[in-house]
Amino acid sequence: MKKGMIFLFFFIAAFVFAQEKAVPRLHIDEENYDFGNVKEGEIVEHDFTIKNTGNGELKITKVRASCGCTAAAPKKNVLKPGESTEIHVSFNTARRSGAQHKYVYIMSNDPKGSQRRIKFVANVLTEDAIKSLPNAPALEIKTNQYNFGKVEEGSVVKGRLMFMNKGKTELKILKITPSCDCVKAEATKSFLNPGEKAEINFEFDTTGRIGKMTRTALIESNDPANSKQIITLFINIVGKK
Q1: pLDDT tens-place string over residues 27-69
Q2: What is the β-pairing status of strands 32-39 and 115-125?
Q3: What is the pTM of this model?
């Protein structure tokens, strides 16, 4: 009986100790982001990745922006140990000018820091100011349309478009977002020196789709004059013979 009580005591003590050791930790991969030069009136977006590096469940209780011009929200509010998610931040540059410094505050149950901060900056320019920039990158896409032609349903077809940096400083491809999960799009290079060329590779999965279709891909870059450009994709999917 006494041995059983001693075993039970140590079992409970070990369980309590393990529970006390199960603590969450909020890790932010990137605490600062620079949108660079952006045109006044545009809405620019960025995803900040956060991770639970602790051994307890992390709960995001609140995400708050320092300005009404900024919207921020986590894609998941509860993270298991080792799990990651993103804080999606969008900044509306309407009626703003010059250097902007904004903050997003993340509240959680991390005992070492219940409130963490991420920051982004941007230089908001009018259209006239952008035109007068002496050293700016410039994204030029050979054509803003691509036609896959007629293809059989069930195949994965590929295409590519050339683009180049026609500006005078480094061009950065920030993000390529297709309008459909049936499309994959990726640049062969994300950083281009002045005059340098690269390609955007497309894949269209036709599985379960029939007929003439139009899809798009949004290209976001640090080109201040055209930070967002759209490529339209055409395809005619026919049934298998």
Answers
A1: 999 999 998 888 899 999 999 999 999 999 999 999 999 999 9
A2: parallel
A3: 0.68
DSSP state of 105: E
CB atoms within 10 A of CB 111: 11
- Tell me the C-alpha distance between 197 and 162, whole Å: 7
Q: Which domains does the chain have, with CATH numbers?
A: 25-130 (2.60.40.10), 139-238 (2.60.40.10)
Residue with tokens 């969008």: 90
Q: Which residues pair with 192 in a beta bridge?
A: 171
Percent of the chain's residues with pLDDT above 70: 92
In terms of DSSP bridges, do strands 228-238 and 211-221 run parallel, antiparallel, or are they unpaired? antiparallel
How high does pLDDT run on average in the chain? 90
Largest CA distance in the chain: 88
Contact yes or no for 62/109 (Cβ under 8 A)? no
Two structure tokens written together for 98? 């010059």
Q: Is 1 exposed, middle or buried (0-12, 13-18, 19+ CB in 10 A)?
A: exposed
